[in-house]
Design a protein that fits this description.
By secondary structure, this protein is α/β, with parallel strands linked by helices. It is built from four helices and 15 strands.
């Protein structure tokens, strides 16, 4: 049975269940071409990679995206009616999956400005609620989120660091917290471990990292 959660690199996440959902595919190790939905949080190169999208998309994959990348998806042959442009504070419902969009931005830095309207996603798949934060700080808009599983950036620099991310996780109180956004552009495995150490004891943590090409490992 396939694991319901995979993290490949940076903020590339796959959720498996009645549907296969990918978020910000990046450095995907091989061609899967099994995505029912691909969600993109924002257009930065380590979150929006056409090369990696082609590794996971199939003919009828649906895309949930910010407006900036619409034309590029059309250029690789994605049909208009398979693309949904979204902005923060929207909600959508499907048979076994629903999602709402939440803001993702920096409070003081200029890397991810609030006015850009970039995204995090709160997704319910098979009755489990997942929060995929995107590139964000610990902001007012995400402190009221309730989720069973959270994926939070911990690398610092462009996003929250381990301490800030743990504070957000402790506010949300999920069953499981998964660190993201380290080991590629910024951040280290030590940042992920710090994040785990700062979590309340009732929150489980799973750390994913690639030991070598094509191989994933994690520590609980």
């Amino acid at each position: 049975m396939q694991e319901p959660i995979q993290v490949f690199q940076q903020s590339a996440i796959c959720l498996s269940g009645s549907l296969k959902l990918y978020f910000d595919p990046f450095q995907i190790p091989k061609k899967f071409q099994d995505a029912d939905f691909i969600f993109i949080t924002h257009p930065h190169w380590d979150h929006f990679s056409l090369l990696d999208i082609l590794k996971v998309k199939k003919e009828d994959t649906y895309f949930i995206i910010p407006k900036e990348i619409y034309e590029e998806l059309l250029d690789i042959g994605v049909l208009e009616d398979h693309i949904k442009i979204v902005k923060p504070f929207e909600e959508y419902f499907f048979e076994t999956m629903s999602f709402r969009t939440v803001p993702a931005y920096n409070r003081e830095k200029d890397f991810h400005k609030k006015e850009m309207g970039w995204l995090g996603y709160v997704v319910t798949l098979d009755h489990v609620i997942y929060y995929i934060a995107g590139d964000t700080d610990n902001i007012f808009d995400n402190q009221s989120i309730k989720a069973d599983v959270v994926f939070l950036p911990v690398g610092g620099g462009y996003t929250m660091d381990a301490r800030e991310a743990s504070r957000l996780a402790n506010t949300i109180e999920p069953h499981l917290a998964v660190p993201t956004h380290y080991l590629s552009v910024v951040g280290s495995l030590e940042d992920a471990r710090k994040f785990r150490s700062y979590l309340d004891s009732k929150i489980a943590c799973k750390i994913f990292y690639r030991k070598k090409e094509g191989e994933e490992d994690y520590h609980d």
